[in-house]
Amino acid sequence: MKDYSIETVCQLNDESIRDQWGALSFPIYQTATFAHRGLGESTGFDYTRMQNPTRQQLEYAVASLEHGIDALAFSSGMAAITAVMELFSPGDHLIVDADLYGGSVRLFNEINKKNGLSFTTCDLNRDDYRSLFRENTRAVYLETPTNPMMNVTDISALAEEVHRRGALLIVDNTFLSPYFQNPLTLGADIVLHSGTKFLGGHHDTIGGFAVVKDKALDERLRFIYKTTGAGLSPFDSFLLLRGIRTLSVRMERAQENALKLAEFLKTDPHVTKVIYPGLSEHPGYEIMKKQSRGFGAMLTFEVESEELVKHILKNLKLIYFAESLGGTETLITYPITQTHADVPSDLLEKNGINRRLLRLSVGLEGAEDLIEDIKSAFESFDSVNPK
Ligand SMILES: *Cc1c(COP(=O)(O)O)cnc(C)c1O
Predict the structure, then answer these.
(1) Whose CA is nearest to atom 12 of ligand 1?
(2) What pTM value is reported for the model?
(3) What is the pLDDT of residue 343?
(4) Which of 165, 103, 110, 172 is CA-nearest to residue 141?
(5) Could you give the domains of the chain?
(6) Is 127 considered catalytic here?
């Protein structure tokens, strides 16, 4: 493919499956099966669990954005992660970062362990992960920045070590989206996405991706894909593709808003900590500048009391108190009771996820209005709880 800018890549189509009438918006091929013209004369599409034109357009877009040779579109982010874990066999060992999406932790602990995999959890930034490799270590799994603590890992440095040990490096790139970061180009072997988040971008559908750059790995994953059957539906593929068309403008605007909110929160006395990798004091700032094109629109902050958390969640008018992230509307999440409810308490404590911590997924509203919304909640708290 020609070396287009990423804004242009968001608009490209897989020319090998052009719509025969020239429809600019690629149609939803709502069909379970495809007729063959004769023996050995498949159109390339046989059965939608395996291939579908709408889904293929989407997979082309995601593979192009992530610089992979193939992207597999799943019915959810968790379905993508589940399929990737099927690459491993009983007895295999994985090293996983300590701060991960809660659903991934639940999958590893409650499903994959039962099926014979073992895991060592460590903080890839602070602990000596090199000493944790075993004979049977097959992969290292991480997110960067992490959810919700925004820890940043140097992907290329890690990739070198992981490959020296003959293991795979798997990166969940949901938080930055391919617009800001491309782990495959930094040495990762598999990139995962919850397409539900920034790629879809509108809080209106669930989807997920696994992206690879190696042909043999792709063949193994495609086999798991057609066998286990969690492919994304044609309609959801259409919605995801539509979301990707505006990825660049959404990411830029959301990031701009996130920085303004982070700057505001830093100055407010109700706030005891602001964690946003786009602030120069963030410990991962320099690594992010090296490996990403931006800092994203996710930020975490800690307030002075649990009572204030409760008040904020009840009194915000514009910002929604809801799970998920990456859509046009700003959402606030309480990790300890929502995304991280199933994470063991010792791990929560180790990561610093406490009852005063809130996470924002910053959307596309006016930054002044978002700041005003939070300010009003602080003020109404003070009026009922005078100091
Ligand atoms: C939401 C999320 C997932 C899971 O994706 P679903 O689409 O909800 O299944 C995985 N990883 C991260 C970082 C997420 O935010």
Answers:
(1) 101
(2) 0.96
(3) 79
(4) 172
(5) 6-244 (3.40.640.10), 248-384 (3.90.1150.10)
(6) no
